[in-house]
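Before surveying the methods themselves, it helps to consider a single example record, giving the amino acid sequence and backbone structure tokens:
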Amino acid sequence: MADRPIELTADAALIDGPPIGDFIALLKPRVMSLVVFTAVTGLVLAPGTLHPVLAAIAVLCVAVGAGAAGAINMWYERDIDAAMARTCGRPLPAGRMMPGDALGFGAVLAVGSVSVMALAVNWTAAALLALTIAFYVFVYTIWLKRRTPQNIVIGGAAGAFPPMIGWAAVTGDIGLGGIALFALIFMWTPPHFWALSLYKSGDYAAAGIPMLPVVSGAAETKRQILLYSLLLVPVSLIPTVVGVTGFAYAAVAVAMSGAFLVLAWQLWRAGDLAGAPRLFGFSILYLFVLFATMIVERLVPGAV
């Protein structure tokens, strides 16, 4: 009986077509904005120059590719999205869009973004963009997410590729700088998402997703968050070690990573989960501040 209203709504969507806003929602705009920001950072930090028009095309391709991955992810996960309060209002579980429309939309955007990147920018950046989309869809969404509590650890690589794409758009290769930026996001991802999953564990349990708090409990999740937060401190300094950033960035990284570690330690010591939303919110600020500092340090010498 619970499925009947969704079926009726879906029939209506089939006749009238979903609104533009639902197609935009498929792109996961908030995730896309972070992806674009980190890709721009890689583009700015890379040695060499890229024509402004080509740079804009590269950023657009990254944005569209990220949106394509998000749309295909929503198509595949429409069943678990329907079981979670945080995601049940999305276009597919809410019945405002037919699954085939979402899949076709995502597939067209994926092929289009990679093709344009290859033809307009270079094949290395296009290959990395294709790898990012494929990794997010096939490795994280289809293979890992429903099978292992390490889904975020391994699958987090998908979110770490964008600065490498920006770097490759300028240089035509990956380089130590691109790898350093990749490592920073890769190490940041687990404590970021585990903090969210701690206070949303009921949602994940209801959907049957084996997130770490669901499988191993809150205490083990807190311990893992503290461990990764500790490792994040030296990893955040790798861009300076390899010469991509200066000492101004290093000072900001140490301060922000120290604050991150303190919040993780407080969460580990606490007997409740009150610190989890605070750590999750700070983790977003953390990544923004570090990457913004990189950009400002490069574009406005002496400003930081």
Residues 176-304 form one domain. The CA atoms of residues 47 and 171 lie 7 Å apart. The chain has two domains: 1-173, 176-304. DSSP finds 17 helices and no strands in the chain.
